[in-house]
Design a protein that fits this description.
- By secondary structure, the protein is an alpha+beta fold.
- It folds into 4 domains: 274 residues, Bira Bifunctional Protein, Domain 2 (BirA Bifunctional Protein, domain 2, 2-Layer Sandwich); 128 residues, no CATH class; 59 residues, no CATH class; 167 residues, Threonyl-tRNA Synthetase, Chain A, domain 2, CATH 3.30.980.10.
- Helices cover 38% and strands 19% of the residues.
Length: 644
C-alpha cells in the first residue's frame, strides 16, 4: 500500500460514517503562545472540544501534519520521527465509545486487512485521586469486537510486572490518560482530557529486540519498548476538564479524539517493523545510498545515520513548505537544527558533497499529490536549505580555527567535555567532530562532562523562559483570549490612524502582553501612539459585539475580510467581525450579499473583519483597560508595538 492510497482510504472510510473531510491545519499554530508547533491532530480542534461549533458539523476526519521538536534526540530507531502525519477522526458531542472502537477496528481489519490476531489494546484503570473510575465499558466493547472475529480476548492487569499473561486487553494507569499536558497531575486548570484506549500491532516474539539487549531478561507486555509491539492508534474519550481546585468535572458533551500514526500504520500494512522501509522514506534512503556509496543496513551506526538524515530532511522540507526556514529564532531554530544534524550524520556515512538542495525534489515527489504547496515552493525550499548548508560548512571551518587557536595558546591543551560544549553552543560545532579531532591528538573527551554542561545550560534556559509559559497549555486562557481580540482592534486602529498601507507582519501573545508587528516606514510619534490607544479604548467602551462566521476563503474575501498570510489558511475559514449589525452566523452567501463596500463616501458598519482561528471575547467590553507601553523597529519598514 502506497502512502497516498492509505491516506485516502482512511479519509473516505470515515466519510462513509458521516464524517466531513477537512484539510490539515498549518504545522505552525495560529494565535497560540503556548507552543511553537502543531504536535498532535487534536491541537487545532481544541476549541470544539470545549463547546464551539465546528463549521463542518459534529463528525470530522483529516490527516494532520505534525512536528514534535522534543523527539529530535529520539530519532534513529525504527519508529521515531520528528515530522509525522496523524490520521484523525473526531466526534464533538456526537458518537462515543461504542461507535468509535467498532469503526477503527473495522478500518484496521476489514479495510486494511490486518490480522486481528496481531492486534492488542489497552484501557484506563482509573484514578481515585481525581475521582475518575475505572473504564469498564471499553474492555467490554473490545471483548465483543474480538469475539465477532473468533478471538477470546482476556482482560488482564499488572502487565508491567507480570507480562502478557495470555491477555489481549490490558489495564494501565495514567499512561492511558490523554491530554496535551500528559497525566492528570500535569494538567492546568481548564485543560480537557480523558481516558484512552490504545491499539498495538504485534510483530511476533521473534521480532523482540532481546538478544544481547537490555530487554533480554525483562518482562514483555504491549507497552514495553522491546520492539515486539508497536502502538498504531489511540482513541481518546475527551470527557473531562480540570477545575481550579484540581478536581475533574465532566464536559457538557462527551467527545472522541482518535489519532492514528500514519507512518506506523503504513508500516504494519506491510508487516514491516521499520517505518523507514516504507514509501515515505525509501526514495530518500535510496538517494542517500547512491551519493554515499553505503548501504542502509551496512551496520547499526550506518542505519541510524540514514534514519536521522531521512527524517530530518523530510521534516525540514515540510517545515519550509509551511513557512518555517532555518534561523536562530523560535521555529526556525529547530529547522536549522534539523539541517545541521543531517549534514553531521551525512559525514558519518561518507557524504562530503553538498546534498540538501538535491534531496528536496526527492521529498517533494513523495508529497506532490497530497500537499501540492510543497511542489510549488520547491525552488524556494532548495535555496533556503542550500544557504543553511553553506553556512554550516563555514561554521565547521570556524570551529576548527578556534580549536587551533586553543592549541596554539597552550601546547598541552586538552579538549575536554566543557570545551566541546562551548564549541557546540557558541558555534554549533558538532560534538562528534570535536571528538574526532581529540582522538587524532590521542585525547578522549568525556561525554559525561559534555552532557552535564549541556544539561546545566538547558536548565538555565528553561528557568529564564519559565515566565513565558508559566500558565501551562491553557496559559490563563481568559487573558490571552482578550489579547486575541485586542490584536484585531489594534490592527484596525493602526489602519485608521496611520493609513491603509499598514499590514500585520506578525504577532505574539503571552499572558502578560501582546506584541504586534506591522508595516510602517517610520517610528510613531507620541501623539500617534496616544491616538491609537484612545481609539482602541473607545471601541472597548462601546461594547461592540464580536461575532463569528464560517465560510469559504473566496466568500470571506468578497465579504471584506482581510488576511495578510492568505496562504496559511485552508479553503474553509473562520471570520471574526467586531461591530456591525448583520447576523454573522447567517450563511456565507447572505453575508457576502449584505456587506457594505468601502469607498470614499461609505464605510461598513463594522470596524474590523479578519480571518482568524480565535479564541475571542463575546464583546469588546470584556477586554478592559489597555495601554501601549513600548514601540521599536524590527527591520526596515516594519515596526513593533507592545500592549498590556
Amino acid at each position: 500500500m502506497q502512502p497516498d492510497e492509505l491516506r485516502n482510504l482512511y479519509l473516505n472510510s470515515f466519510k462513509k460514517y458521516g464524517h466531513a473531510i477537512v484539510p490539515s491545519a498549518s504545522i505552525v499554530p495560529e494565535n497560540d503562545p503556548t507552543t511553537l508547533f502543531t504536535g498532535s491532530g487534536m491541537q487545532p480542534m481544541m476549541e470544539y472540544f470545549l463547546g464551539a461549533p465546528h463549521p463542518k458539523g459534529t463528525r470530522i476526519v483529516n490527516s494532520q501534519i505534525c512536528f514534535r521538536s522534543q523527539d529530535i534526540e529520539e530519532v534513529g530507531d525504527n519508529r521515531h520521527t520528528t515530522f509525522f502525519e496523524m490520521l484523525g477522526n473526531w466526534s464533538f458531542g456526537d458518537y462515543f465509545k461504542k461507535e468509535q472502537l467498532r469503526w477503527v477496528f473495522e478500518f484496521l481489519t476489514k479495510n486494511l486487512g490486518l490480522d486481528p490476531q496481531n492486534l492488542y489494546v489497552s484501557a484506563y484503570e482509573g484514578n481515585s485521586k481525581i475521582g475518575v473510575d475505572r473504564d469498564k465499558e471499553t474492555p467490554a466493547i473490545w471483548k465483543k469486537l474480538f469475539a465477532e472475529v473468533g478471538i477470546v480476548a482476556e482482560v488482564v492487569e499488572n502487565a508491567v510486572e507480570k507480562g502478557l499473561q495470555g491477555g489481549r486487553i490490558f489495564y494501565y494507569g495514567d499512561g492511558n490518560w490523554w491530554s496535551r499536558a500528559g497525566a492528570p497531575k500535569n494538567m492546568p486548570a481548564g485543560e480537557p482530557g480523558g481516558p484512552d484506549s490504545e491499539i498495538f500491532y504485534d510483530f511476533g516474539v521473534d521480532r523482540r529486540l532481546h538478544e544481547n539487549s537490555e530487554f533480554k531478561n525483562k518482562v514483555c507486555h504491549i507497552n514495553c519498548d522491546c520492539g515486539r509491539f508497536l502502538e498504531i492508534g489511540n482513541s481518546v474519550f475527551m470527557q473531562y476538564q480540570k477545575q481550579e481546585d484540581g478536581s475533574f468535572a465532566e464536559l457538557p458533551k462527551k467527545n472522541v479524539d482518535f489519532g492514528g500514526g500514519f507512518e506506523r500504520i503504513l508500516a504494519v500494512t506491510q508487516d514491516e517493523i521499520d517505518i523507514f522501509k516504507t514509501g515515505l522514506f525509501s526514495p530518500i534512503i535510496m538517494y542517500l545510498e547512491k551519493i554515499s556509496g553505503q548501504k542502509y543496513n551496512a551496520s547499526e551506526d550506518s542505519t541510524r545515520s540514514f534514519r536521522v538524515i531521512a527524517d530530518h530532511m523530510r521534516a525540514a522540507v515540510m517545515l519550509a513548505a509551511n513557512g518555517v526556514y532555518p534561523s536562530n529564532k523560535k521555529q526556525g531554530y529547530f529547522a536549522r537544527r534539523l539541517v545541521r544534524r543531517s549534514i553531521r550524520y551525512a559525514k558519518m556515512i561518507g557524504i562530503d558533497q553538498l546534498f540538501t538542495a538535491d534531496l528536496v525534489p526527492v521529498i517533494v515527489e513523495i508529497y506532490k499529490d497530497s500537499y501540492p504547496d510543497v511542489s510549488q515552493k520547491l525552488v524556494q525550499i532548495q535555496n533556503a536549505l542550500a544557504l543553511e548548508e553553506n553556512k554550516f560548512v563555514k561554521t565547521i571551518e570556524k570551529g576548527l580555527k578556534v580549536i587551533e587557536k586553543y592549541q596554539e595558546a597552550k601546547e598541552s591543551f586538552v579538549i575536554d567535555g566543557i570545551t566541546a560544549f562551548k564549541l557546540y553552543e557558541t558555534y554549533g560545532f558538532p560534538f562528534e567532530l570535536t571528538q574526532e579531532i581529540a582522538q587524532e591528538k590521542g585525547q578522549k573527551i568525556s561525554l559525561e562532562e559534555f552532557e552535564i554542561a549541556k544539561k546545566l545550560h538547558s536548565d538555565q534556559s528553561r528557568s529564564s523562559s519559565a515566565d513565558k509559559f508559566k500558565g501551562g497549555l491553557q496559559d490563563s486562557s481568559e487573558q490571552t483570549t482578550k489579547y486575541h481580540t485586542t490584536t484585531h482592534l489594534l490592527h484596525a486602529a493602526l489602519r485608521k490612524i496611520l493609513g491603509k498601507h499598514v499590514q500585520q507582519k506578525g504577532s505574539n501573545i503571552t499572558v502578560d502582553r501582546l506584541r504586534f508587528d506591522f508595516s510602517h516606514p517610520q517610528a510613531l510619534t507620541q501623539e500617534e501612539k496616544q491616538k491609537i490607544q484612545d481609539q482602541i479604548t473607545t471601541w472597548i467602551e462601546a461594547v461592540l459585539p464580536v461575532t463569528v462566521a464560517h465560510m469559504s476563503k473566496e466568500e470571506a474575501l468578497k465579504s471584506g475580510a482581510i488576511a495578510f498570510f492568505i496562504e496559511k489558511y485552508p479553503d474553509e475559514v473562520t471570520v471574526y467581525t467586531i461591530g456591525g449589525k448583520q447576523d454573522l452566523t447567517a450563511s456565507a452567501e447572505n453575508l457576502a450579499d449584505s456587506v457594505q463596500k468601502t469607498d470614499e463616501n461609505t464605510s461598513p458598519d463594522w470596524i474590523s473583519k479578519e480571518f482568524c482561528g480565535g479564541p475571542h471575547v463575546k464583546n469588546t467590553s470584556e477586554i478592559g483597560k489597555i495601554e501601549i507601553f513600548r514601540e521599536k523597529a524590527v527591520s526596515a519598514g516594519t515596526r513593533r508595538l507592545y500592549l498590556r
